[in-house]
Amino acid sequence: xxxxxxxxxxxxxxxxxxxxxxxxxxxxxxxxxxxxxxxxxxxxxxxxxxxxxxxxxxxxxxxxxxxxxxxxxxxxxxxxxxxxxxxxxxxxxxxxxxxxxxxxxxxxxxxxxxxxxxxxxxxxxxxx
Amino acid sequence: xxxxxxxxxxxxxxxxxxxxxxxxxxxxxxxxxxxxxxxxxxxxxxxxxxxxxxxxxxxxxxxxxxxxxxxxxxxxxxxxxxxxxxxxxxxxxxxxxxxxxxxxxxxxxxxxxxxxxxxxxxxxxxxxxxxxxxxxxxxxxxxxxxxxxxxxxxxxxxxxxxxxxxxxxxxxxxxxxxxxxxxxxxxxxxxxxxxxxxxxxxxxxxxxxxxxxx
Lengths: 128, 214
Hints:
heterodimer, A: alpha/beta, 5 strands, B: 2 domains, 8 helices
C-alpha cells in the first residue's frame, strides 16, 4: 500500500533547531502535515488527542524522555501500532538494545542525513 | 582514662556531632572534640596523646594545603566563568545555525521560479545545508556534558569550602545528578550523550546491532 504523504507526523526534540531540520527534510520528502513537541509528555498528550501515522523522536529530553514516551505509546492500546523512529546521539549498544526491547520501529544515530532518514522511514512505512 | 575508654568517648562525641550537624561536620568541631579529649588524657596515655596530636597536626596541614589552592576562588570565578563561556558558545552556534537555515529557506522559496533542473539541484544543496546544521545539536549536547562535569566539581569545592568554616562559606552550589542504583540500567543510566567521534557507532553498526536483536 502506498504511503500517504498527507499523514500526520509528530516530531519530538528539545532542540528547536533539530525540529526545524527534521521538519525541512520531511517537507522535502513530500510530507506536509508535521507537528512538533519539545518533550515526551507534550508528545504523549498530542498523540492521545490526535491521529498520527509516524513519530520521530529524540531520546534525551526532560521531563519525559524519548524512551519513556515510547514505552507509554506501546502500553496504550490505541497508540500501540504507531510507527516510532528514535533519532538520537545515544549510540551505545545498550541504548539500541533498550530501545528495541521497548518496541522502537527503527533507530537513527545523529548526525544523520536525508538519505538515512528516508531509508528508515521506508523500512517502517513502506516505499514512497 | 584508658585507650578503650577514650575510643568510646571519641565515638560517643562524634556520634553526637553527627546527630547535631549531619555529615557536614566542620573541622573546627572535630578539633574541639579532640582537644577536649586530650585534656582528659592522663600521663599514662602519652603514646595515644602523641598519636592524636600527630593526627591534629596532619589535619591542620591538609587544611592549609587545601586553602592554598583557593577552592572558593576556583568555584566562584574560574568554574562559573567557564560554564558561562560554554553556554555562550551554545547560544552563538544556535543563532548562527538558525541564520543559515533562514537563508536555506529563502533559497527553497526561489525554487519554483527556476528551471526544473536548476530547482532540483538547488533542492539538493538546501538538503545538505539542513543536514549540516545538525552539528549544532551534537555540539550543544557535548558542551552540556562538560558543563555538567564542571558543576559536579563546583559542588565538591563547595563542600570543601564549607568544611573550612564560616569564613569560607558561600551559597550552596547546585548538586550533580545522582546515578541510579545498581541493577538493570535505567533510562537515566543510559543517557550518556553523544560519544566521542572515535568511539561513536556508525549508522551501519547501529543497523547491524538493531537487526541482530530478536
